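INTERNAL AUDIT FORM
Audit reference: QA-55
Scope: verify that the stored structure record matches its stored sequence.
Auditor: D.O.
Record contents follow.
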Amino acid sequence: MIFRLFPLLILLVLAGCGGPAAVVEEDEEKSAVATRQHGATGTANDVVIFALGLMDTKYRFGGRNPDAGFDCSGMVSYVFNRAAGVRLTGSAASIAKKGRAVSSLNMKPGDLVFFNTLHRPHSHVGIYLGDGRFIHAPSSRGEARVRTDSLREGYFAHRFEGARRYLD
């Protein structure tokens, strides 16, 4: 029951939050920084709300839209593009090379969280919601669908590798 109320709680907590949108660009060292995209209006709050609207969308390897289904990087790319006007493409590992590193103590809703789930760095990605929870498109554990999970306990807690920020 509490998990069904969680999206509503997040929406209420985040109401009124926001900041300028960003686009990801690579510098000469091929690390990336988030910078403001001309005309983009999305905020971290928009990203979280949009992502929560995709709950229970089916999983599909290589999936990039809700009709076909999502894999983890496809969901993140879709949400950031539609909700914030930020283009993030490629695998979870390539997305992890972009953005600005954020300590786990300073994570904010809308940051991306990365995990080592396939015995290789940054093999899974999700969107941080706040309160130690994130939304993602996992490929296992029952019928695979977009869902929320905890960063503090369970399977993903031991596989967490870090967070990155793509929006101001």
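Auditor finding: record pair retrieved intact. The domain at 19-165 is CATH 3.90.1720.10 (endopeptidase fold (from Nostoc punctiforme)).
Action required: none
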